[in-house]
Specification:
With 117 residues, this protein is an all-beta fold. Helices cover 0% and strands 50% of the residues. It is globular, with a radius of gyration of 13 Å.
Length: 117
């Protein structure tokens, strides 16, 4: 069982930056793929970024070059550095964990990110 708690969301102007954090419980954190998924109002959940336990990383095309995902297995944490934010990045951002990318079994409660124009 893995419990995930996100933090770091907020309101920022377009062009600004935010750093999201996800704290995970459980001794097997390092074995999981970790990801960030977002959901904008009226839209389906969208994959943003993921990182395997090997360190392999994947990004959605919409955030490549602007967002950076990282993990610290010693701290049971995963981060999402978001730069050059756009209004279309506005969404609830969820941290997720699973055996493979896109196979998410555990979810956090989400943190709101709002980008004003």
């Amino acid at each position: 069982q893995v419990q995930l708690v996100e933090s770091g969301g907020g309101l920022v102007q377009a062009g600004g930056s935010l750093r999201l954090s996800c704290a995970a419980s459980g001794r097997t954190f390092s074995t999981y793929a970790m990801g960030w998924i977002r959901q904008a109002p009226g839209k389906e959940r969208e994959f943003v970024a993921g990182i395997l336990r090997s360190g392999i990383i994947r990004y959605a095309d919409s955030v490549k070059g602007r967002f950076i995902i990282s993990r610290d297995n010693a701290k049971n944490a995963v981060y999402l550095q978001m730069n050059t934010l756009k209004p279309e990045d506005t969404a609830v951002y969820y941290c997720a964990a699973g055996p493979l990318l896109y196979q998410w079994e555990y979810w956090g409660q989400g943190t709101q990110v709002t980008v004003s124009s």
